[in-house]
Amino acid sequence: MKYLPRVLDSELDLRLRSVGATLIVGPKWCGKTTTAKQKAASVLEMQDPDLQEGYLKLADTKPSLLLQGDKPRLIDEWQLAPVLWDAVRVSVDRSSEKGLYILTGSVVKDDSKTKHTGTGRISRLEMLPMSLWESQESTGQVSLAEIFAHPANSVDGARGKLSVEELIFATCRGGWPSSLQVRGDDAKLFVAEDYINNVAEVDISKIDGVNRDPQLAAALLKSYARNISTLATVSTIRKDVLSVREVSAPTISSYIEALRKLFVISDIDAWCPALRSSTGMRSGLKRGMCDPSVAAAALGSKPEYLLKDFKTFGFLFESLVMRDLKVYSSALGGKLSYYRDRYGLEADAVLHLKNGRYALIEIKLGSSEIEEGASHLLEIRQLIRKHNQTERQCPLEEPSFLMVITGGSMGYTRPDGVHVLPISALKP
Fold first, then answer.
1. Do 372 and 322 fall into the same domain?
2. Distance from C-alpha of 224 to C-alpha of 241, rounded to nearest angstrom
3. Which of 339, 407, 413 minimizes the C-alpha distance to 377?
4. Is the pLDDT of residue 109 over 80?
5. Do residues 110 and 155 both lie within one domain?
6. To 10 degrees, the CA torsion angle through 69, 82, 99, 30?
7. How far apart are the C-alpha atoms of 57 and 60, rounded to whole Å?
8. Is residue 112 pLDDT above 80, yes or no?
9. At what angle do helices 214-226 and 234-242 cross, to 10 degrees?
10. Residue 122: Cβ within 10 Å count
């Protein structure tokens, strides 16, 4: 089947030229192995049931033999034999060559099972399911990199590719590569449903050997989905789950941590500049998942239902935009946070670059909400300017640009300079 290029391809190329080994992590089924195979000259598939027993025995006796093969050598699901991590590190130490190994894994690395962190030898890349640009559902007429380089340039006339109906379907289907390869809308939607079933019934217990209740895991996933794109606390999520069964706060926290290690949960941190009194800041985690389809499947929300419930779809749409912004910003060496205070002022996303530049972004599904989103962004920028007038010793850099991302079809730049852009017109 045809390989659809991923944003991570160029990041992987850079690391293969710069360091001895690269670790690609991310949720199952997001395409890590397929992407790694595009660059690998040989492959070791640790999960191969016909060969796994032999591989594990060899790992116990002489793991360096498993590293033999043309380079770069891909070691898929390396965590099945954690000793391979240290074997790779030693091999990199003994060689001056770059791009020797690519490791892939669907769980967060357990440092207790390895002797070395890999710092300086093994670079880390996180992969997400496909963005709309990668699944070829965005026109890509506007580039984030270009806006940062030329923030005053207009985005007038940029057109999105998806209608509301198509956007809802893309949200429920998600960015799973396999969902693009099956026939029929029902089969495309089933991929995400099957994913969360596997997480609840198998993966959440397999991750660390702790026997967890699949029903409780499913209830937790549903609660997380209900609270997607909000600042819901663990106690709020626990109250949801209590309707299914009695459960302690520590147990809920352990389930959430297991889902984090599986990359199912992907929360967003707060950006807390000293613009107002610290007591006015909201600094909790914004609840997020690796893909909006996970939330939709956990809620049992079908596209036809969401067409009648735009309130629920609004939260799922924000999750989709955040996924895409994470993918695109990774190519720029960026990271995401959010801003919110008790006065109701917010920016759904704050996109930071390594060089200190950043952008304030609001996410609004419908055109009726654009004015509110733009007003929030302009007020935050004004707060920053006031701060800089009074705190000259520690000024804050102003945002490079302000943007409202919508589910609409047409992009434009407002007279006040705020860019309004459909998510299906954006690319890295």
1. yes
2. 10
3. 339
4. no
5. no
6. 100
7. 5
8. no
9. 120
10. 21
* Structure confidence by residue, pLDDT tens digits, 234-263: 999 999 999 888 999 999 999 999 999 999
Asked whether residue 88 falls in the same domain as residue 148, the answer is no
Query: In whole numbers, what is the pLDDT of the chain averaged over residues?
Result: 94
Hey, which residues does 268 pair with through a beta bridge?
A: 286
What is residue 349's DSSP assignment?
E
Same-domain status, 207 and 60: no
How many structural domains is the chain composed of?
A: 2
Cα dihedral 250, 256, 257, 258 sign: positive
Nearest alpha-carbon partner for 188 in 203, 201, 171? 171
Provide the 10 A C-beta neighbour count for residue 163: 12
Tell me the C-alpha distance between 404 and 38, whole Å.
Answer: 36
Per the CB < 8 A criterion, the answer to whether 386 and 100 are in contact is: no
CB atoms within 10 A of CB 109: 20
Structure tokens at 221: 């996933």
What is the percent of the chain with per-residue pLDDT over 70, rounded to a whole number? 97
Q: Residue 74: exposed, middle, or buried by beta-carbon count in 10 A (0-12, 13-18, 19+)?
A: buried
The pLDDT value recorded for residue 107 is 86
The string of pLDDT tens digits covering residues 270-318 is 998 877 655 556 678 999 999 999 999 999 999 999 999 999 999 999 9
String of DSSP letters for 378-425: HHHHHHHHHHHHH-TTSPPPPPSEEEEEESSSB-EE-TTS-EEEEGGG
Residue entry with tokens 């967060």: 108
261 and 397 assigned to the same domain: yes
Count of all residues that appear for the chain in the document: 428
The amino acid present at 14, given as its one-letter code, is L
State which of 91, 126, 161 marks the end of a domain.
Answer: 126
**159 and 141 Cβ atoms separated by less than 8 Å:** yes
Q: Which domain holds residue 320?
A: 142-427
Residue 199 CA to chain centroid, in angstroms?
Answer: 17
Say which residue the tokens 């909790």 belong to: 284
Distances (CA, A) of 361 to 294, 339, 410: 23, 10, 17
